[in-house]
Amino acid sequence: MTTPDTGMSGGPMAIDVTRTPSRCDGRPVILDVRDLSTEFVMKRGTVRAVRDVSFTVREGEVLAIVGESGSGKSVAALSAMRLLQAPGRVAAGEVVYRGKDLLKLPAREMRDVRGNHISMIFQEPMTSLNPVFTIEDQLTESIRTHLKLDKKAAAERAIEMLRLVGIPSPEKRVKDYPHQMSGGMRQRVMTAMALSCDPDVLIADEPTTALDVTIQAQILALLAELREKIGMAVILITHDLGVVAETADRVVVMYCGQVVEEACAEDLFEQPLHPYTLGLLESIPGMDETESDEPLYMIRGMVPNPLNLPTGCAFAPRCDYRTEQCVREMPPLVERADGRKLRCFVDVTEVRQ
Fold first, then answer.
1. CA–CA separation, 283 vs 2, rounded Å?
2. Are 319 and 313 in contact (CB under 8 A)?
3. pTM higher than 0.85, yes or no?
4. N or C, which terminus of the chain has less Cβ within 10 Å?
5. How far apart are CA 244 and CA 73, in angstroms?
6. Beta pairing, strands 45-58 & 29-42
7. Cα dihedral sign for 223, 224, 228, 231?
């Protein structure tokens, strides 16, 4: 059984989806991922971790990519940034940034894009920061590489970035080593490092994982504030639907390496169309005390072995709405008249009426 993590401790959580209309409607597309496929070739077989994934990111918007562990969301981001390590490889697709396919760029040009134009906050700051170098050393390396500043100017920029992300006494803390900082502070340092070159796109991979509730809120508020100041787009990779409800403009739902649903955040939370999305939302505890004795809904079964995916829809063995067609055939990803995208043969809204 799987119950999605709400990302909160100490009690259930209510999702508030009261939001202003997306500020990104009609804005130009800045990043276009087209039919991306990623494989891991191993002795036991080939795992297709990402299967024909497509999505766009518009200037200044927050696009959330959600799904259970193993859904392929982080692998898709690493593939787009060309940071995937062996035995993983990008088998097909395009990642177009301002008219250039990043997957075809020479390594030197890709290094200029990575960090300078598209930055990434990794999931675990303790393993992403080098323990034998000071925060200043690690910040100034990126700044000097991309902004071509001298040592003094880069050090000043590093202090400025630490101040921007809310680290107190940045002139002193910049001399610290990672182990001298708390988890929340290290996450702020990673954010400062990712933002030091004013990127157009920030990829945040589970930026609040392993942080307590207070620090989670601070990091999310920080990203929202910096988004307003810098005007960057954000790709938020998470399994925490509470975070998605608070921050995202659009949502891409992934399962077994595929996109199964895409919609504006408001529409997705008000009326999920895919049975998997519906299951994720129904698995979140509510705040209504009258329902506190009710058993929490759980999606039955387990995520299938990627080396032995079922015929037809990968979610069919766990789906409460499956039909014989679902078991036999893989549903295509179809764009509806309202702009939402769905990979399902069943109209869940009709079945549930």
1. 9
2. yes
3. yes
4. C
5. 14
6. antiparallel
7. positive
Taking the chain (353 residues) in consecutive chunks of 10 residues, what is each chunk's mean pLDDT? Answer: 40 40 68 97 92 94 93 95 93 96 95 90 77 94 88 94 89 95 87 88 84 76 80 90 90 97 95 94 68 74 90 95 95 93 88 66
Instruction: Specify the 3-state DSSP secondary structure of 13.
Output: coil
Q: Which residues contact residue 32 at a Cβ distance below 8 angstroms, ignoring those fewer than 6 apart?
A: 56, 57, 94, 95, 96, 97
d(CA 257, CA 37): 9
Map tokens 């708390």 to a residue. Answer: 182
The whole-angstrom separation of Cα 193 and Cα 156 is 13
Q: Give me 159's structure tokens.
A: 């202090």
Neighbours of 131 (CB within 10 A): 9
Q: Are 281 and 18 in contact (CB under 8 A)?
A: no
- At 127, the amino acid letter reads T
Going edge to edge, which strands form the sheet with 100-101?
45-58, 29-42, 88-97, 100-101
Token pair belonging to 87: 């035995």
Q: Give residue 103's identity as a one-letter amino acid code.
A: L
- Written as one letter, the residue type at 161 is M
